[in-house]
Specification:
The protein has 4 helices and 7 strands, in the order ββββαββααβα. By secondary structure, the protein is an alpha+beta fold.
Length: 160
C-alpha cells in the first residue's frame, strides 16, 4: 500500500532568547565542553509548536555560559489536520519535520550566540554544527490539550 504524501505548511512566528547567562568573570583558556538539549511543546488548539534549544558551555565541569532560545512555529490548518491521529487523540509530526524545526532553532541560536557574546565582551563562541537527524530519530506525538472549561464540562456532576 502506497503512503499518501501530504504537504505541511508552517511558518516561523517567533524567535526568542529565553536565557543568556555569563557566569565566568574571565573566559577560561583551552577546550570548552558544550552540552545541548532540545525540547518541544505545543498548543494544539492554536496549531502551534515550540522548539527550545538549551546550551551550556563548561570548563572542568563548571558552567561558564548558558544560552536558551525558543522558536515558535504555526501550522496551516490542512497540514495540521492531516497529522492528527484519532487513535491516541494526538498529532504526530514526522521525524523529518521535527528535525527541520530543530535545525531552524539551532541556526537561530547560533546567530543569537554570536551577537550576545560580542555584546558581553567575550571571545567569539562557536556553536558547532549539530545534526538534528542524529538527535531526533522518531516522530513527535503531541497529545491534545484539554482546556480547563472543557475539562469541567467533561467531569460528571456528582450531585445529578
Amino acid at each position: 500500500m502506497e503512503q499518501k504524501q501530504i504537504q505541511i505548511n508552517f511558518r516561523l512566528t517567533d524567535v526568542r532568547e529565553v536565557q543568556f547567562v555569563k557566569l565566568a568573570n574571565e573566559w577560561p583558556e583551552g577546550e570548552i565542553q558544550i552540552g545541548n538539549q532540545l525540547q518541544f511543546s505545543s498548543e494544539t488548539d492554536k496549531r502551534v509548536v515550540r522548539c527550545t534549544a538549551h546550551f551550556e558551555y563548561k570548563k572542568n565541569d563548571i558552567t561558564q555560559l548558558i544560552l536558551t532560545v525558543q522558536t515558535t512555529f504555526e501550522f496551516a490548518r490542512e497540514g495540521w489536520s492531516a497529522m492528527y491521529q484519532l487513535q491516541g487523540d494526538q498529532w504526530v509530526l514526522p521525524a523529518g519535520l521535527v528535525q527541520h524545526l530543530a535545525d531552524v532553532t539551532i541556526g537561530a541560536s547560533r546567530g543569537i550566540l554570536a551577537v550576545r557574546t560580542e555584546e558581553a565582551g567575550l571571545p567569539k563562541q562557536i556553536l558547532p554544527l549539530l545534526s538534528p537527524a542524529q538527535i531526533i530519530q522518531n516522530n513527535l506525538a503531541l497529545p491534545r490539550q484539554v482546556k480547563p472549561e472543557e475539562e469541567a464540562s467533561a467531569t460528571p456532576n456528582a450531585n445529578a
